[in-house]
Amino acid sequence: MRGYQVTDPRDRIYALLGLASDSTLLKILPDYSMSHTQLFTDVATAMMWHLQNVDHLSYCYRSTSQLELPSWVPNWTIQKRQMPILSNTFDASRNPLSRFEILLDSKLRLSSLIAGEILAMCETSWAVPKPKPESETSHTSKTKSLNSLARTVLTDISCLVRRHSGSYAEEEEIAKLATYTACAGLDLRSDGSWARHVHSYSLYSKIMRQDQLSDPAKLYCASVANRSSQRKAFVTKNGYFGIGPSSTQIGDFAVILLGGRVPYLLRHVNGNGYVLVGECYVYGIMDGELLSSGKEFSDIFII
């Protein structure tokens, strides 16, 4: 929806209604008397009811847009091209969205588990170098650029782990955490599909030593470039490591939301609830492990 130029932002929604086979289930009809804010909010609400998940939250980005939307509603006018961490291979909450409520002031009440509060993070986010015209950039140069970025990401995460964790003392344990987190748990395959990352210490070592890389290793570097771009690494007070949006701040909370396949970062607003910062990858809780800790879901309000 974000990739097309339209005169009226509402057409980003209405144009798809005739294309989607299940659009009637959302019960959204073209109505140009409706404001952009109301339409986008109604669509987000309908998706939660129909899909019984909160996947749409992975397309919510903090911005300076003039549209006054709740933080839990995607702004489809933002021209942002970022690969979501969201994947159907993850199942962080292990449960469908069985209950939620939209209050009169557009607050969203959801059930959540707090994984941890952000203690520290890398100072800057990573960015894929801007592409140059094909005539100016060889394939070899592009590959070297991606390899260099992957090495930077792995170095940053490894340094963060060494500074803030006593539980990952062995170099191979640090390498495993870093390689998983750098690609947010997924590897790019040669056919363009994605699969769960499989750790290899030799892969980590070769990238860090700047050795000649095999084709699978080059694909891993491309995976890191795709999945870490415009994100930064963080560690929580209770020792969880992950990557989140470039807007991540110390004091944000990594949480599991009922109906969420991936964790999300929330920022507390004095006496008012939380604002959604964005989706995140947290090593060690992507498959519902947090539910085995004995913690129970409790209600929160997202504004």
Automatic annotation (TrEMBL):
Q: What is this protein called?
A: Heterokaryon incompatibility domain-containing protein
Q: What's the domain of life for this entry?
A: Eukaryota
Q: Name one Pfam family in it.
A: Het-6_barrel
